[in-house]
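On clarity, I found the account of how folds are encoded harder to follow than it need be. Since the whole study asks how a given chain folds, the encoding of that fold should be made plain. For the editor and my fellow referees, an illustration may be useful. An entry of this sort, consisting of the sequence and the corresponding backbone structure tokens, reads as follows:

:::
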Amino acid sequence: MSAREEVLAAVGSALGPDPHGASEVPRGYRAAGLVPAGSPELVELFCERVADYKAEVHRVSGTDELPAALAAVCAARGSSRILRAPAADWDIDGAEVRPDSPHVSPQDLDAVDAALTGCALAIAETGTIVLDGGALSGRRALTLVPDHHVCVVRADQIVASVPEAIAALDAGRPITFVSGPSATSDIELDRVEGVHGPRVLDVVVVGS
């Protein structure tokens, strides 16, 4: 018996004597919006999934704790020259923080230690940060060139699933999905970080 005949025989056996009488496939799909954005269970799941991607997660209960948390994150990484997205105007003691603009060249982006941004949304199920090129997310180059990306995520920005995120996003904006630091295993299955973007990702989650 040839390989083709073996495969067809296995398919025929699985279908049985009446292939058209196969049982119905359950279609009870989970509906979107069952868990509100920012719910504690979504925040916990998001933090767990982000950590799975070898990113560092830092939790603060409110915005009053954010400056100290950002300062600690940057100090731990040795990041003292920071370029931020236009609306990511958080203070970081002990660091030089400048706003990004389209006039900043790739060479200047490469000279800074870290990029500081917020995000458009975050997805609990996949541990994904969504950037949309807006004032909080910054332009794509800002989160592509520097080796260290510090991203602030508010708890109320965390939705349950990818479909919910897609429904909430503006399709006319340049959307980027970030799941952990940039990495690839294309070469001999060895993980190499920093190939397509930052080697290090720190996510600061604000609120519970």
User: Anything to note?
Assistant: The first strand starts at residue 56 and ends at 60.
